[in-house]
């Protein structure tokens, strides 16, 4: 059942906003921070008081997770795909999913299917002489992993399309979307039963590889989270004195606006980021970690307003770079970082779009570490707009506009085509 909530109207002073990157970004940051402080003060509370509410909430969760890890208890909730398909997911699993904001779906795809897709991707890239033509990393974001390559700028292989448009994937995405509040005040913010088939890359890390991993970060945006009017509405309860009502599962205003462009940004609204395992992976072999506390986003959004942050500083957040989470500004959150358990080929891994996540470094990788990145990106005005660009890239075999313009597949004859789309795929690309 789709959840609903009431939107808040407050009558407080409006905030300045910039729908594109300001020419004088430091001045804009100073202005919006001063306005946010004044707005909170007009509500009858101080920034310190509001931040303390979120800080207590988050610290309690951190302590809970650290204690659970000390006892050897699993941190990531798990569910069998069969229970999602049958509608028999246990209430305790749903409760943990909301509390932790992450999930492993066991057997999302049959193991044999995942392994076949893995081999199919190998055949696809080798048959098209990808390695002979590879020009190196085209963005700074994955430069730290030290891959040669580890992240492949491949989007249109038949296995990727088959996974994106499969019935099994659609059922899991709908289940995840339905954990959100998708309607409020008569507005349906997204359709939980229709995905937009957001295309992303693949990762292939071979046995024996060394990888520096990725530091803690998150991906929903950068300074635009404070400067764009739509995002100011998303985080309205943090800025209007009603911080107790802040709900990271509320989709209100997330699906209609835009964000600042950049090669490390996601133009789509994703309820969950996710990947599909194409091989078995042990929990200590350079795997994904999260801070499994969806409410931590409130901490990150309010932290720059405290007095110890420079007036034009945002705790290290910059345009066109991933949102960093660092010991300098966010130390209390980091003890909660928790890695995925052992993963089998065909499992899928999901984390709330606002979640802090990282990839652990690894030396002398034992076994492969191969995944397809496939999120849950439900149909909504924002994703419908991006789908127009995705359709054009799909037809031309080019890199989607959210990613560097590498275009390796443009002349590959065996890439996925319109004739390979099923009904779900056509709907996801806005063709039907």
Low-confidence segments, ≥5 residues, pLDDT <50? 1-9, 140-147
Class inferred from helices and paired strands: alpha+beta
Question: Percent helix among the residues?
Answer: 25-40%
Class, according to the CATH hierarchy?
Mainly Beta
- Strands of the widest sheet, in order across it, are 2-3-14-10-16-8-4
Number of helices: 15
Describe the structure.
- With 432 residues, the chain is α+β, with helices and mostly antiparallel strands.
- The chain has a single domain (18-428), classed as Jelly Rolls (Sandwich), CATH 2.60.120.330.
- Helices cover 33% and strands 14% of the residues.
- It is built from 15 helices and 17 strands.
- The protein has helices spanning 25-42, 47-70, 81-86, 91-100, 111-127, 130-133, 158-164, 167-177, 224-227, 229-234, 236-239, 296-302, 327-330, 381-396, 423-428; strands at residues 3-5, 78-80, 102-106, 151-152, 181-184, 187-188, 191-195, 202-205, 214-218, 272-277, 288-290, 323-324, 338-339, 348-352, 357-359, 369-373, 378-379.
- It has a 7-stranded mixed beta sheet with strand order 2-3-14-10-16-8-4. Strands 12-9-15-11-13 form a 5-stranded antiparallel beta sheet, with no helix packed on it. It has a 3-stranded mixed beta sheet with strand order 1-5-6, with no helix packed on it.
- β5 and β6 (187-188) form a beta hairpin.
- α2 runs antiparallel to α12.
- Mean pLDDT is 93; it is low at 1-9 and 140-147.
